[in-house]
Design brief:
- The structure holds two protein chains of two kinds.
- Chain A contains nine helices and no strands.
- Chain A has helices at 2-7, 15-43, 51-87, 96-134, 137-143, 148-185, 193-203, 206-233, 238-269.
- Chain A has one domain (40-269).
- In chain A, 84% of the residues lie in helices and 0% in strands.
- Chain B is an alpha/beta fold.
- Chain B has two domains: 4-91 and 168-251, P-loop containing nucleotide triphosphate hydrolases (Rossmann fold, 3-Layer(aba) Sandwich); 103-165, no CATH class.
- The longest helix of chain B is centred in the last third of the chain and has 18 residues, at 182-199.
- Chain B has helices at residues 4-8, 52-60, 77-82, 107-111, 113-118, 123-136, 152-165, 182-199, 210-216, 243-251, and strands at residues 14-23, 26-36, 41-45, 67-72, 75-76, 92-95, 170-174, 202-207, 219-224, 227-232.
- In chain B, helix 6 (123-136) packs across helix 7 (152-165) and helix 8 packs parallel to helix 9.
- Helix content of chain B is 36%, strand content 23%.
- In chain B, strand 9 (219-224) and strand 10 (227-232) form a beta hairpin.
- The chains are: A mainly alpha, B alpha/beta.
- Chains A and B meet through helix 5 of A and strand 6 and helix 5 of B.
């Protein structure tokens, strides 16, 4: 009723305060991630000693990403050919090879595999470290004079940074092969498979692979440091772990795209 | 073989002066003064939320006090914490309320974790120390189990074995008997007493369990309103006039005339 409506006034919306809080939160996450990145770089020199942990993490990252990465790349390569064939129908289908090759090596391979790594391995990292934070396991390490950054973050960081460029090469290969399969079997495509590969080899250079690998290295760092940052930031119980995991994946996706833009901008300027 | 008196010398003294800690406006520790003698087993009791666990976290260095001074073994805590592990003259271990075992490691890997990471001992030595620590807590034969396969009481004992494996001069226990039934509580209590008698480490135990504190400790410190309200021997407990201590005694059915079923 009217009396109730007056009594229960709607909460005041303070958009500027919320915006300010949001900006501060973003800066805080970026600051913590930067500090963790710097701390992790300082422990990278222990890789030879801690190689077993690094290899174990590389196997985990690989297993998490390999099969679904293959499936994803295969279909992306196939879709690219079908879509591009439609677009270039009135020009020439000879450019299908370069389109697939350049797209996969420079953009789609790195970004898709980085998203996959962040979504699967990254979310697992955030959940695992989050759980360890909530249940005092990280504090237990500290009380035992064991550096949690060296023990937990460095192996994941090195594993992701090495594994992602390799996974990108693998995705490039599978994607290009997927495109070739469509070229071979789709009656709407009139060029031979050999022509698809010949034109691709004319257009795709080593520098294109290199750009993809640089992206892979940077994205691997992002997709491991951010989940670890959110893992260490976790507060509360199960809900906190779930929230940290979601935030880690979302933030990783955003920062991967931000760094993608920056790398593209820099490489175009060179 | 060392006499009990000699063993007690292995522990280190802990001294807190005016330790304060607040989270925002909420003052948890409002100036704690406490002296723990080498080899002593001190129980800290108090109501939930009075800062007992916070106090332990200051002593082990997981948090820094806002004010006050903590010395362990005569060394200022900040100086001790910044020492390289191999230069530290004594070791501090903590047993967490949740046991805080690493879920992906086996019992033996959890117990030997610090020793393996330090790489100062041979594999055979580490295996021997791990075996002895597990035997000490009556968990021989569980080496290859994962924490998830153990009961709550066993996990707590593995956490104690992990603490013992580093041969600490000071052991801090945060609610070691929380969530345990009375029989397991008694078992953990006996284990902590045995550590005092055999090893002589200084031990500080935070607990709600007044009967346990009374049964095993040398002194009991009552934490109330962010300060040590009183610190007394178990035998003096019944004569305490402090309202919180009396309330605890009544609730624990230790006070004559308290009601029971």
């Amino acid at each position: 009723m009217a009396v109730e409506a007056v009594g229960r006034s709607a909460p005041r919306v303070r958009p500027f305060a919320r915006l300010g809080t949001g900006v501060l939160d973003v800066l805080q996450v970026l600051g913590e991630a930067s500090r963790l990145f710097a701390a992790t770089l300082r422990t990278v020199r222990f890789v030879p000693i801690d190689r077993q942990r690094v290899v174990a993490q590389m196997v985990r990252v690989g297993v998490d990403t390999l099969w679904i990465g293959a499936l994803l790349s295969l279909f992306v390569g196939m879709v690219l050919v079908v879509q591009a064939a439609e677009q270039v129908e009135n020009v020439t289908q000879e450019i299908l090879g370069p389109i697939v090759g350049l797209s996969m090596t420079k953009e789609l391979g790195p970004v898709l595999m980085a998203f996959l790594l962040a979504g699967r391995a990254g979310s697992a990292m955030a959940a695992e470290l989050g759980s360890m934070t909530v249940y005092d396991e990280i504090n237990a390490l500290r009380t035992m004079d064991i550096d949690p950054v060296r023990f937990l973050v460095m192996p994941r960081f090195v594993a992701a940074t090495i594994a992602l460029p390799i996974l990108i090469l693998y995705a490039d290969f599978i994607g290009v092969t997927g495109g070739a399969v469509v070229v071979a079997v789709d009656p709407a495509i009139t060029i031979p498979v050999r022509s698809y590969f010949d034109r691709m080899l004319e257009w795709v250079h080593f520098s294109d692979f290199l750009v993809g690998l640089v992206k892979g290295t940077v994205f691997g760092m992002v997709a491991s440091i951010l989940p670890c940052t959110f893992g260490f930031r976790t507060r509360g119980g199960t809900e906190g772990i779930a929230s940290a995991t979601t935030s880690a994946v979302v933030w990783s996706f955003i920062l991967i795209l931000v760094f993608d833009f920056l790398i593209v901008r820099v490489t175009f300027a060179l | 073989m060392a006499t009990p008196a000699e063993k007690r010398e292995r522990g280190v003294a802990v001294d807190l002066r005016g330790v304060r800690k607040a989270y925002g406006d909420h003052v948890v520790l409002a100036g704690v003064d406490l002296a723990v003698h080498p080899g002593e087993l001190l129980a800290i009791v108090g109501q939930s939320g009075t800062g007992k666990s916070v106090l332990l976290r200051q002593i082990v260095g997981l948090e820094r006090p806002d004010a006050g001074r903590i010395t362990v073994g005569g060394i200022e805590l900040p100086r001790y914490l910044t020492m390289p592990p191999e230069k530290k003259p004594f070791r501090i271990a903590m047993v967490f309320q949740s046991a805080a075992l690493l879920a992906s490691l086996t019992v033996a890997e959890n117990v030997s974790l610090r020793l393996r990471e330090r790489r100062e001992k041979t594999s055979a030595e580490i295996a021997r120390i791990t075996r002895e620590a597990l035997e000490h807590v009556d968990l021989a034969g569980t080496e290859n189990k994962l924490p998830g396969e153990l009961s709550g009481g066993m996990r707590k004992r593995v956490a104690i074995a992990r603490a013992l494996a580093v041969d600490p001069e000071l052991i801090l226990y945060d609610e070691p008997t929380a969530d345990l039934d009375p029989l397991l509580t008694e078992e953990i209590g006996k284990l902590i007493s045995r550590i005092r008698d055999r090893r002589g480490s200084t031990q500080m135990i935070v607990t709600h369990n007044l009967p346990l504190a009374r049964a095993i400790s040398d002194r009991i410190a009552v934490l109330a309103e962010g300060r040590i309200a009183e610190c007394l021997a178990p035998a003096e407990l019944a004569a305490s006039r402090h309202p919180l201590t009396r309330e605890f005694l009544r609730a624990s059915a230790l006070e004559p005339g308290s009601t029971s079923c």
